[in-house]
Design a protein that fits this description.
The structure holds two protein chains of two kinds. By secondary structure, chain A is mostly helical. Helix content of chain A is 79%, strand content 1%. Chain A has 14 helices and two strands. Chain A has a two-stranded antiparallel sheet. The longest helix of chain A is centred in the N-terminal third of the chain and has 34 residues, at 65-98. In chain B, helix 5 (66-99) runs antiparallel to helix 6 (103-117). By secondary structure, chain B is mainly alpha-helical. Chain B is globular. The longest helix of chain B has 34 residues, at 66-99. Helices cover 80% and strands 0% of the residues of chain B. Classes of the chains: A mainly alpha, B mainly alpha. Chains A and B meet through helix 1, helix 2, helix 4, helix 5 and helix 6 of A and helix 3, helix 5, helix 6, helix 7 and helix 8 of B.
C-alpha cells in the first residue's frame, strides 16, 4: 500500500508543477510568436539570398568601408557615453549612498524624475537647449565663456550629451544599490586605524563598488549600441549608427538580407555583453529593486 | 587629525566639492524638464526662454487639431490595452514560474525577459516582417501585441519581486479550508501583492505610451501614435506645440508616479 500512495503523491506533485508551468504558457506563446520566431527568421534571412545559402551579407559588412565607419562611430559614441555616465554618476551615487535614507530618497527622486519622463520629451528638450541660439549657448555667451555660439547639436556632441542624459539613471541606480550594500563600518575601521580618508576610499570603498561600475557600464554600453531615437534626432542625420542603418536597409531599400546581417551582429554583441553582466550581477538586481 | 575627521562640519566643508559637483549633475538631470515647461506657455512662434509673456496659444492649437488629439487617443487606447494584456499574462507567468519547481521554468523565465535585452530596433524590424505577412501593420491589434511583448519583462520582474515577499502558505491554508485555487489566489494572494501589481501595470502603461521605435514601423498614417507623430514632426521643425505636448506628458507621468507612490504608502499603512 505505502509505495503506491507515495507514487500517487509524487504523480500529484508532478501534475501540480506542470499545471503551474502551464500558467506561463500564454506569455511564452506571445513572446515566441511576436519576438522569437521573427528574430529567428531574420537570422535565417541573413544567410540566404535568391540562390540559397550565402555569407555575402556578412562579407559586405566586412568589406564595405561605409559599414566599418558606422560600426566605428557606434562603438565610439557608446564608449564615450559610458565613460561620461561613470564620471557624472559615480560621485552622485557615492554622495547618495552616504546620506541618511530620507535625504537619499529625495536625491534619488532627482534621478528618477527624468528616468520616468518620456524619452522623446527629453530628446526634444535637448534639441531646444542645444540650438545655436539655445539656452546653453546664450548662457555661456552671457557668462563670457565663449564669444561665438558653439555647434552643439546635429553632430557628435549633441548625440553624446543627449544619450548621457538618458543613460545616467541606468548608471546611478545600480551604483547606488551596490554602494548602499557596502558596510560603512569598514571605512570607519580603516580611518580609526589611521588610514587617511582618500586612502581608505581607494583601497576599500572603490574596489567594493567595482561590480556596480562594471554592471552599470555594460548596461549603458548595451543600450547605447542599439539606441535609435535620441541619436537620430540630435544627430540630425549626420551621425550614422548601426540602428539607423538597419532601419534604412529594411524600410528604404527593403534589403532584408543586409538589415538582418547587421541586426544579427548587433544582437550577438548585445547578448555576449549581457551574459557578462549576469555573471557579475543578476538581472533582477540591475533593475534597482534589490 | 582624527578629531578633524570625526567633526561633521569639517567633513561637510571637505566634501564641499562633492556637493557642488552633485548639484551640477542634478541640474544637468533636471534642466531639460524645467526648461520645456515654461517654454510651452510662450505666445511666440519661436521657442523662447524665459517666455516674454504667458499664453495658452499652443495648448489651444493642440486641442483644436484633430491630428494631434487623434494620435493621443490612439496612444491611450494602445497603452490601456497593453496594460490589460501584459499585466494578467505577466502575473500568471510570474506566479507559475515562481512555484513550479521544474528545471524548465528557469529557461522559460529567461525567454520572457529577452524582450528587455534585445535592442528595440531588432524587435521592431522582426515585428514589422511578421506583421507584414499577417496584415497587422498599421492596426491597433498589432501595436498592442508588440507593446505587450515589450512590457512583459517589466511585469514579470516586478510581480516576482512582490511574490518573493509573500508567504505562499497562506494561500495553501485557504485552499485546504475549501477555497478553490482561483478563489484563494484572488482573495488571499492578489490583495497582498497589490502594490507590485499596480507598479507593474504602471510600467506596462508607460512602456506602451512612451514607445517610438516599434510604432515607427507598425503604426503609420492615420494610426500614428502620439510619440510617433512627435518624432516625425521633430525632424521637420522645432515648434512650441511640441513643448506643450511635452509638458502634458511630463505632468502625466509625474501624477502617475505620485499615484503609484501614494497607493504603495496606503498599503503600508493598512498593514501596520
Amino acid at each position: 500500500m505505502a509505495p503506491h500512495a507515495a507514487e500517487a503523491m509524487e504523480g500529484d506533485a508532478r501534475r501540480e508543477r506542470l499545471r503551474l508551468l502551464a500558467l506561463s504558457s500564454p506569455a511564452f506563446l506571445l513572446v515566441l510568436i511576436v519576438l522569437l520566431i521573427p528574430v529567428g527568421w531574420l537570422f535565417f534571412l541573413s544567410f540566404v539570398d535568391k540562390d540559397g545559402f550565402t555569407l555575402s551579407h556578412y562579407a559586405r559588412l566586412w568589406q564595405n568601408d561605409a559599414y566599418f565607419e558606422i560600426f566605428r562611430v557606434t562603438f565610439l559614441s557608446s564608449f564615450l557615453v559610458t565613460v561620461l555616465t561613470v564620471v557624472l554618476g559615480y560621485p552622485l551615487a557615492y554622495l547618495l549612498s552616504q546620506l541618511p535614507r530620507r535625504a537619499a530618497i529625495i536625491g534619488l527622486t532627482v534621478v528618477l524624475l527624468p528616468f520616468w519622463t518620456s524619452l522623446l520629451v527629453r530628446t526634444y528638450a535637448w534639441l531646444v537647449l542645444l540650438q545655436r541660439k539655445g539656452l546653453v549657448n546664450s548662457t555661456l555667451m552671457s557668462l563670457g565663456i565663449i564669444d561665438e555660439p558653439l555647434n552643439l547639436v546635429y553632430n557628435m556632441s549633441g548625440v553624446v550629451i543627449g544619450m548621457v542624459h538618458i543613460m545616467l539613471p541606468f548608471m546611478v541606480l545600480p551604483l547606488y544599490a551596490t554602494m548602499r550594500s557596502i558596510d560603512p563600518g569598514l571605512m570607519r575601521a580603516a580611518i580609526s586605524l589611521g588610514a587617511p580618508r582618500h586612502k581608505a576610499f581607494f583601497t576599500i570603498f572603490a574596489p567594493l563598488s567595482l561590480p556596480g561600475v562594471i554592471a552599470g557600464s555594460l548596461l549603458v554600453f548595451i543600450y547605447c549600441l542599439g539606441f535609435y531615437i535620441t541619436p537620430q534626432v540630435l544627430g540630425g542625420g549626420r551621425i550614422n549608427l548601426v540602428s539607423m542603418k538597419i532601419l534604412e536597409n529594411a524600410t528604404i531599400y527593403s534589403d532584408w538580407g543586409a538589415a538582418s546581417a547587421l541586426g544579427v551582429v548587433l544582437l550577438v554583441v548585445t547578448l555576449l555583453l549581457f551574459k557578462a553582466i549576469q555573471i557579475i550581477v543578476p538581472v533582477d538586481r540591475l533593475m534597482g529593486r534589490s | 587629525m582624527m578629531d578633524m575627521d570625526s567633526d561633521p562640519t569639517v567633513s561637510h566643508l571637505r566634501r564641499l566639492w562633492l556637493y557642488l559637483y552633485c548639484l551640477a549633475v542634478a541640474i544637468f538631470l533636471l534642466a531639460p524638464i524645467l526648461v520645456v515647461i515654461p517654454m510651452s506657455f510662450s505666445p511666440s512662434e519661436f521657442l523662447e526662454f524665459p517666455p516674454s509673456s504667458l499664453s495658452l496659444r499652443w495648448y489651444q492649437s493642440l486641442f483644436n487639431s484633430p491630428e494631434w488629439t487623434g494620435a493621443a487617443i490612439i496612444s491611450l487606447k494602445a497603452a490601456v490595452l497593453t496594460v490589460l494584456v501584459a499585466t494578467p499574462l505577466g502575473i500568471a507567468a510570474a506566479y507559475g514560474l515562481q512555484y513550479s519547481e521544474m528545471g524548465i521554468a528557469k529557461l522559460v523565465r529567461s525567454a520572457l525577459i529577452i524582450p528587455l535585452i534585445v535592442p528595440v530596433i531588432i524587435v521592431a524590424i522582426g515585428v514589422f516582417y511578421l506583421f507584414a505577412r499577417l496584415n497587422l501593420v498599421n492596426t491597433l491589434t498589432g501595436l498592442v501585441l508588440a507593446h505587450s511583448v515589450l512590457a512583459l519583462p517589466f511585469v514579470i520582474v516586478v510581480v516576482s519581486a512582490g511574490l518573493q515577499r509573500f508567504d505562499i502558505n497562506q494561500e495553501l491554508v485557504a485552499r485546504s479550508l475549501g477555497a478553490s485555487r482561483v478563489k484563494a489566489f484572488m482573495t488571499v494572494t492578489l490583495p497582498q501583492i497589490r502594490p507590485s501589481v499596480m507598479s507593474a501595470a504602471l510600467f506596462a502603461f508607460i512602456t506602451s505610451f512612451d514607445e517610438v521605435v516599434v510604432a515607427l514601423f507598425v503604426s503609420r498614417g492615420p494610426s500614428s501614435t502620439l510619440t510617433r507623430k512627435m518624432f516625425t514632426s521633430l525632424r521637420d521643425q522645432v515648434s512650441p506645440a511640441i513643448a506643450a505636448i511635452s509638458t502634458i506628458l511630463i505632468l502625466t507621468t509625474f501624477l502617475l508616479a505620485l499615484a503609484a507612490l501614494a497607493s504603495a504608502r496606503g498599503d503600508k499603512q493598512q498593514k501596520s
